[in-house]
Model the fold of this input.
Amino acid sequence: MTPLADQKIALDLALAQLTQPFSGKIRCGARAITLGDEHNLTPSERAQMPASVVRVLRASASARIVARHLFTAARYPVPTDICKNQSGAPIWPKGFVGSLSHDEDFAAAAISSQTDFKSIGIDVEPPTPLPQELIDIVATPQETSQASNLGVPVKLIFCIKEAVYKCTNVLDSVYLDYHDVDVNLANNYALVRNIQKVNIYTIVSPRLVALAVISNENQ
Done:
């Protein structure tokens, strides 16, 4: 078995644990990005990426393969196209929310019914260190200290803030700087501009994954 195949098995188990508190109301999945995945883009999806290189097309298609699999597994109507809005966020069928992500090796997706959740965001990152020159750009000293105290990589802060941005931007189209998001790792939430509370759920192995959630109760 290849290292990526081993990681895929471990990632599936970790994602199952991550979503366990939601009792099936949020579904997450991942896929090793595979040669030829790019051919799974529909004509409408491909038309939105005219200048993209094959590597990007392949990763984007892979994330959409995961999303469609999740819709099928949940017995939801499977979207023919998962196109993008003006900000680049995926457009989901009416009544559903979701998020896509990919790094160089894996693609991931998360979906849910809008009845249960107002918005969700997912981000996946390789478990490599965050470059030293980016730490102060991404994290506050307090967030860096939290990560150190909890024994998790500082890059998890980056991963969380990417997921939070995806979760909130589809609701308000507001651009966020990294320091607009204050992460409380110990209590599993983030505050956006000290106002909007977003719950966060994370795993650190075999990849860094952050799931950001705004339930309808937060309205």
Remarks:
- The chain has a mean pLDDT of 96.
- The two ends are 46 Å apart (CA to CA).
- The CA atoms of residues 96 and 113 lie 4 Å apart.
